[in-house]
Amino acid sequence: MNSVGKSQSPAGEKRNKEVLPKQAALRARPLRLPMVLGAFMLVFAILGGRLVQLGLRHHDDVRLRASAQKRQAVDRPEIHDRNGMLLALDVPTSSLYADPQVLLDIDEAAEKLATVLPRLDPERIRRKLLTRRRFVWIRRFLTPEQRKAVHDLGLPGLYFLREPKRFYPQGRETAYILGTVDSDNRGLSGIERYMDEQEKAGGGEVKRDGAQRKAPVSLSIDLRVQHAVARELQQAMQRYRARAGVGLVLDIRTGEILALSSLPSFDPMRREEALKPDRLNRAMRGVYEPGSVLKSFTIAMGLDEGVITGDQRIDVATPVRLGRFVIRDHHKTKDGAMSVREIFIHSSNTGAARIARLTGIDRHRAFLSRLQLLDRLRTEAGNCELPLQPARWHFADSLSIAYGYRLSVSPLQLASAALALFNGGNLVRPTFLRQDRKVALTRGVPVLKSATSRFMREIMRENVLKGTGRAADIKGYRVGGKTGTARKAKKGGYGKELLTGFLAIFPSESPRYLTYVMLDEPQKVPASHGQNAASANAAPLTGRIILRIAPLLGVTPRFPSTRPAN
To answer: What residues does 502 pair with on adjacent strands?
Structure first.
């Protein structure tokens, strides 16, 4: 029988030693498990926080990009001439902006940017960047070389935005027609402004082509004709040493403006040039007393109102007196009278004044108003300057206007009103947009008798054959025309400086085109045989222009047939 206090055997002691560590491990397990779980949760919390931080930063980047897009220049449609030649288009460029909150060192950024963009003022840029705003323009419309140079600086906080920049392939030649745009590519003047106004009026709906670009705008301008007129006008200014010049070509039946040139012009890519004092669009924004060109309207008025007939002879020897005003001619005739044709050909001031007196003030003013010579002319490229006329017409005003003074009007408005004198008597509104010819021909408003228009065509041709317009005669093209020479008004009266002009049509028997040129202060030079009247400069200029543009416009020269002798 075993005693109670007997100790365990060696085998039992070994089993006890193996069991004790397992029990200790089991007791420690509840402590390590929470620690491991806690560590995992901490890691996940750190990762989650970082993801949230990155997400918020991405959201800031998205907002910054969205803000930049709102400041981006708008895209514009191309502008073509009537034959599809490019006049204006958008060119993709890169613009540079900064997020001041991301820039590490504003002073360093300003200095480094100035090294690669030399025209940049580092101090000005530094002041712009010292802001709490997230978007600051640095430079718009970089060249590819400038973009690469900025990129290579490796400065955080600088970004590029793709923007369209307006480009004008023809440069100065079409500047006054197309106009300009601002830094956001929005139209400021000319056709550019008109397109924006039309888009706005249409509720923002814009026609687009197959590539989802804004559909091109087709103008009435013929670039070939525009180039020829501008080139001849420039050469004439040099030849006659004139300060400025204007050249116009219009379709006589539709009113489409095929060319409008006003010199000196400006570079539309540098719109600040347009602010120079001599950069005036004289074709539309200048108003001038046109001189004897207005006699065309005076004679047409007398005929249409029935106060004269084509063969009627009118006294031109007796001066016309009205108070202190005296109008006299230097032309001598056997009986002291001239026919209406002769009054036009010899440009008689007395004859024109007598026709105005026969017509009367009220009918004179009503006639010019009917041809839209007294109200403001509005076009797609902008409004013409309001004509200057007497506040209250008196007989002296009416008589002066009859031969070319006391009414100042823009060249385009004068040429537009003259269309009705030669196209059969229909008033057509001038336009810079290409027209469907069949539709355009139905829009004319009759304002003159067809017989009046026919007579005017005849005497225009006679004036070129044997009157003051002989220098404009181009064989084969049957040009008709009228000269106009006027002294320039100045404070207190009129000076010695002249404005010369020439109004022409061709072919005269059934005219298709009308031209008008004006030279500002041409000088007496050997090229004009020491003369500075319109017959010596504006008339030959017109002849050179027609000689160049007639073949381009499809006007075939016609020569008298010669039969062999029997």
So the answer is: 483, 517
C-alpha dist (Å) from residue 362 to 159, 320, 358, 369, 452 = 68, 20, 11, 11, 20
Same domain, 191 and 323: no
Q: Tell which of 185, 218, 251 closes a domain.
A: 218
Q: Output DSSP code: residue 320.
A: E
- Is 347 strand, coil or helix? coil
Active-site residue (options: 261, 262, 292, 296)? 292
Alpha helices (H) along 324-449: 340-345, 349-359, 361-370, 395-402, 411-422, 437-440
pLDDT digits (tens, 9 = 90+) for 492-524: 889 999 999 999 999 999 999 999 999 999 999
Distance in angstroms (rounded) separating the CA atoms of residues 511 and 37: 99
| Single-letter amino acid code for the residue at 422 | F
Name the band, by pLDDT with cuts 50, 70 and 90, for residue 30.
low
Mean pLDDT check: name the lowest of 118-122, 217-221, 291-295, 415-419.
118-122
- Annotated active-site residue 94? The verdict is no
Which range marks the domain in which residue 169 is found?
Answer: 79-202+214-218
β-partners of residue 248 are 260, 516
DSSP string covering 198-243: HHHHTTT---B-TTSSBPPEEBS--HHHHHHHHHHHHHHHHHHT-S
In this prediction, residue 457 has a pLDDT band, given cuts at 50, 70 and 90, of very high
Q: Is the pLDDT of residue 70 over 60?
A: no
